[in-house]
What does this fold into?
Amino acid sequence: MKLVPPNTDPTPSSPNPRRRYKLGVGIDIAARTFTAATCELDETPSKAHNFTQTPEDFIRLEKHLLAAGLLPTDMLVVMEATGTYWIELAIFLDSRGFPLSVINPATARDFAKSLLIKLKNDRIDAQMLARLAITHKPALWTPPPLIYRELTQRLAQRNDLVAMRTSLTNQLHALSVCRLPISAECGQPLRLAGPYHRPSTQGTRSRN
It folds into this structure.
């Protein structure tokens, strides 16, 4: 059963004053990865960078953005509401003080059409969202209550356990089809008691 917390409506609910952000950040979200790009006003978007959906890469993204020498409040992050994959990253960025807008995918598609962008991939989408952030400044996202942040952490722990179970199941299957004899005590392949010597064929003659 999929649990979707309330207050994660992709339509931003907090009005966004026309603050003069110095940098727009676009993030294209996937199930296990995300791609980020930045854009200054009237400039070409930066090269896109790929990250994984892990706490370690959330921190790596933060360091990458702060390397520009700006404060988090000088940037506006925009991402699409893709399933529920965006929630953990959005909560992390909000907790770090980054202004954040989570937009409906239809809004992103309309903006891409206005730019005559016909190609679509993670890199192009991230750059398009970065440009949308710095030019349109969509309304800010309201994070869910604390209880749903805790729920997100529990779901992440569950995902880790499921991944571990899958790995162990695969290992068990590999052992079940292994042709080598397996020791019942340690689960390791049995070793021969002594070195194996191939019978010598020297000095023998074939008999007709």
User: Anything to note?
Assistant: The chain has two domains: 23-143, 145-182. Strands lie at 23-29, 33-39, 49-52, 75-80, 100-103. Helices lie at 55-66, 87-95, 105-114, 122-136, 146-176. The radius of gyration is 27 Å.
